[in-house]
Amino acid sequence: MDHLALAAGTASRWGAVSGAGGEVAVLGAGMHPWGKWGRGFVAYGVRAARAALADAGVEWRDVGSVVGAGTVRGGYPGYVAGATFARALGWQGARVTSVYAACASGAQAVAAARAQILAGLADVVLVVGADSAPKGFFAPAGGDRPEDPDWLRFRVLGATNPAYFGLFARRRMAVHRETPEDFAQVKVKNAAAGALNPYARYRRPVTAEEVAASPVVADPLRLLDICATSDGAAALVLASMTYARRHGVADPVRIRAVSTVTPGYPRTVLDLPDIATDSVVGASAVPGSFRASIARAAYEEAGIGPDDLHLAEVYDLSTALELEWYEDIGLCGAGEGAKLVREGVTALGGRVPVNTSGGLASFGEAVPAQAIAQVCELTWQLRGAAGARQVAGARAGIAVNQGLFGHGSAVVAVR
Hints:
Elements: E1 24-35, H1 41-56, E2 65-69, H2 75-79, H3 81-89, E3 95-99, H4 105-118, E4 124-131, H5 149-157, H6 161-176, H7 180-194, H8 208-213, E5 216-218, E6 221-222, E7 231-239, H9 241-246, E8 253-259, H10 290-302, E9 311-313, H11 319-328, H12 337-342, H13 359-363, H14 367-383, E10 396-403, E11 407-414
Parallel strand pairs: 2-3, 2-4, 9-10
Antiparallel strand pairs: 1-7, 1-8, 4-7, 5-6, 8-11, 10-11
């Protein structure tokens, strides 16, 4: 894989490697526990924001900008999430930015905050994402929108998210000869980590036998192979390196790269909500997958490669999809993801633990918050503050996920 050979100092079409000049400090990280709490997303976001501010030792009045990751399900307050959170915390004149990019909303919010800091528009930025999710699986917003690919995939195909997850699993079984037993081991691994995380919704170990005994949802995936929908929130306090030093933090966790790239053309692997691939009659297929390009851009900007990682947080909407992410972020070659799980490489105590937080398997989806929550986990791990799930000597990690409609999402954090 080409991105395994990335070297420090590499420039790319996404911009030159940032190095220290492009880094911002993570001064604070905070979360509201995931679950089904029956309250509005604003309450969850405010709690996470206050936790992040307290963790940073920063007063709300000293925050120069607020970036809110929102969701269309939040109605009008969700569309203007930045101002919604600022109002709830108390007006104090900060700049506001609101971001919606489906499951990549949190990473887009981090990218916006980082850009503001590097541009000198603010020394301290609060990033908040929160969700109050519906019961059951996600559906599109109401109304008829025939130009909307997400609406079309429900109306034309009847393809809920689990159908999408099942397609990926079936493809891996056909192409790589993986089995439902391989998928189940991913759940076992993530549940073991989630049992150690006080913010996780599901906090007990799970056996492979329990996965196999759970109901089939989208063959071959069973209920315990698929993540739930959850309420929850996460927040970060980001700052310039100058401010961090002035604040007395000489060696903070630093965000070195944020990748929000879009797919290349043509796309030759079906990826919902699109219900057809692009034609290759007039253009040759681009090498690698969209998800691989998300990670590659982050590595190039950060000046590191997969061999430099101590941990990763990946977007495990389903157990099978986590295996594909191993390949996309360069931990192994195509079809080798299940081998990593069987050998314990990606488990706590393994060579490169993946989803030390417990992942979406343990949290469920709280869409605007989940990419921010991934960075919270990287922050705690790189600080050495992750408790029983701590990765020894962690100095570099990547968080990756993908938003519908072609939104890339990757963050590299180092210390």
